[in-house]
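DM from R.C. (forwarded with permission)

"hey, sorry to bug you on a friday — could you get me a structure for this? deadline for the figure draft is monday and I only need the backbone to look sensible"
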Amino acid sequence: MKNNYEIKNIAIAAIQEEARAVAALAQYIDDDFVTVVDRILHLQGRVIVTGIGKSAIIAQKIVATLNSTGTPSIFMHAADAIHGDLGIIQQNDLIIAISKSGNTPEIKVLVPFLKQTKNLLVALVGNTESYLAKNADFILNTTVEKEACPNNLAPTSSTTAQLAMGDALAVVLQECRDFTDKDFAKYHPGGALGKKLYLRVSDLSDQNGKPSVQLQANVRDIIITITHFRLGAVAVLNGDQIQGIITDGDIRRMLEKHTDLTAITAADIMGKSPKVIDKNELAANALHIMRENNITQLLVSDHGIYDGVIHIQDLLKEGII
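My reply, with the result:
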């Protein structure tokens, strides 16, 4: 059993070896890489990514990244391809085959069938003299000096390099397409990530009601309104225009200072510079404002007219925090 010091050093060495492998990829970004980008940008079909073993797992991740950044892609397992899955490939598709050695038996069986389809074949490969590389139309070189594995056997540095090259390809395609955060949101409608990109303030504030009082409202009406809506605050209006905000804290501080409440109005208690956000802003922006100002709610406006309240608990429920 290794001691704590040895365990840390082994882990650090593995990370450093993989980091060197990824950094070395910069020298392999060549004309073939540029041509592959151009062909994909003008592709009428999909990108088909295939591999065997650990390379198949990397292929699935690359497909997921391409799909989420605007490049339609499909994973095809190399072993399944020769047992019927070649039907996935359509006339206008481009194929990326991933392999470290480029010489595995499965690849040698698959490549002739891929060539028969007449589709462009890109080898994302760690051996440019391999069978796969020599039969490909273009090569994305992912050669690594050694694996992070102490026996130089388990795919570690090589699969990390494959993943990094796939990410580089996806990022370049994304930039070339001017793929914006709004485009990204279309492909990520679920989960916290998607919600940060598309959920609007009004989507949450509309569920809360619109607690408000006028400038001359008395303390009793203010407390009743705050209690009824359970948002910890109420907007103070002059007509439909926002003049201020009264929070639970404002009420407590007022009670500490005054014993006679009969003459006190909303105008006397309110904070006169409330933080306000437009209903069409992203809910994530509301969270940023709350954090920046150390507050738990914002008044919401619709083109300057009061439209409700958004509370930090609304953001918590949606998983944005």
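R.C.: lifesaver. The mean pLDDT is 92.
me: no worries. The radius of gyration is 30 Å.
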